[in-house]
Amino acid sequence: MPLIEAQPDAVAQVYARSLFELAEADGGQDNTEEVLGELEQILDLARADASFGEFISSRVLPAKSRAASLKKMLDGRASDLSIRFLLILNQKGRLGHLSAIVAAYDAIVQDRFGRIEVDVFTPEPASPEMLATIKDRLTNQLSKEIILHPYTDPKMIGGLKLRIGDQLIDASVETHIRRIRERFAAGGADQIRAKLDELLNNTE
Question: What does the alpha-carbon distance between residue 89 and residue 119 come to, in Å, rounded to a whole number?
Fold first, then answer.
């Protein structure tokens, strides 16, 4: 069974909130971010290494055996809190849901310390100037520190897409084209033509 990639659900939120409270109590912001970094590294390894991913998420492997292996692998490489948390997930049969739990934990950390992570998708690599403009506008609108993660999506025709949490803001060209097609299909062709005629007449 592969590692489950899913949006945070109520159960993930409970585990993430408990971990955050423990991490903040133990060492404040620095500790919460350290734990986040460690868990993200473990997730990255599970995604990149199929055998490790299977080890993390397998329902066949006895929890007791996996616990011993986790301790051996992570001892000295991760904080005691991260290791204890993974062992609890292992005991509860929740390690396969680590991705959703870490996503929920990340959202809590960012919100607690006034930051929002935003994924930016463009058809070609975005220039530093473009990213700076997007960041400035979002900062002004949301009044939070914006952390941008730029991605390139060659399938896009133009424009951009922003993912903020579980919300997708789609300003891509293909989306506008699709909406126009949907209006035609829904019988809105006459309205669109009338609008075009109005625009043309106003330019005469």
Answer: 28
Q: What is the DSSP letter of 155?
A: T
CB 16 within 8 A of CB 105: yes
In order of 15, 105, 131, 141, 143, the CA distances from 114 in angstroms are 21, 14, 20, 13, 8
Q: Is 27 exposed, middle or buried (0-12, 13-18, 19+ CB in 10 A)?
A: middle
Tokens for 16, please give them.
Answer: 């993430």
| CA 25 – CA 199 distance, rounded (Å) | 62
| Edge-first strand listing for the sheet containing 167-170 | 145-152, 115-122, 161-164, 167-170
pLDDT at res. 25:
95
How does pLDDT run across 52-108, given as a tens digit for each residue?
Answer: 999 998 888 899 999 999 999 999 899 999 999 999 999 999 998 999 999 999 889
